[in-house]
Amino acid sequence: MRIETEPHNFFPIYDLGGQTVVIFGGTSGIGLATAAQAKGAGAKVIVIGSNEERAWKAAEDYGFDGWRAADVTRPGAVSDALRDLPSVDHLVMFAGSVVAGKVLEADVNHLERAFDERLWATVDAIRALGSRLQKTGSVTLISGRLADRPTAGGTAVLAAASAAMEALARGLALELAPIRVNVLAPGAVETPLMDRSFGPKRDEIVASMKKASLLGRLGEPADAASATMLLITNIWINGEVLHLDGGARLL
């Protein structure tokens, strides 16, 4: 990775030219915004999502270099999606749905999906790539505010899965060195996932969340994407969790 600076200019210009970035969950929300910014930085970008039509359309609209449709919870799906890639510089694992349900009430198979989509999909991807994951590259995972502050509304298992991603990153940073491994921990970001999670009450809930925010707003996908780009491109960040919640952890 080259970091170019002008004389007496301490603001680096990041260049991902010639590098391949693979983004699971790259067809909407934070993943899509990250893919667009990586493409803008010159990377060859491959997006992978659960829906074939959405993956194809994202690649077509943004000029990505490839797309895949894969259910990361299905055995073999992750390795199949990565099979034909000769090398990967940066792996971004942002796949994951809102798996909610109280431990005493929810179907266990449903709750297991929180770990399958996040932790085990990451393990599958790293094992599938093996030596094709370049030593000068990075792995970026995602957790969330729930890792620190779960709620009583059926988020215990999802919170556990989020916290597990942070622990996994620290262990992988040791195991995979010199490949860097970091975690983005966003707070509330306005993405299509909110539409699916909140349904007809979305606007009401979002308005309430904004009112309670220190900044009077929620995050945008572009905010989270620029933070992800920092984790991808800064070669001195390793084994870290970057909290991006507008100060919500202070409340």
Automatic annotation (TrEMBL):
- SUPFAM superfamilies tied to this protein: NAD(P)-binding Rossmann-fold domains
Q: Which residues form the Ketoreductase domain?
A: 19-192
Gene3D superfamilies xref list? NAD(P)-binding Rossmann-like Domain
Q: Which UniProt keywords apply?
A: Oxidoreductase
Which GO terms label this protein's molecular function in UniProt? oxidoreductase activity
Q: Which CDD domains match?
A: SDR_c
Q: Which domain of life is it from?
A: Bacteria
The reply on keyword Oxidoreductase is yes
**Family under the similarity heading:** Belongs to the short-chain dehydrogenases/reductases (SDR) family.
Q: Which PANTHER family match?
A: DIHYDROANTICAPSIN 7-DEHYDROGENASE (PTHR43477)
What is the name of this protein?
A: NAD(P)-dependent dehydrogenase (Short-subunit alcohol dehydrogenase family)
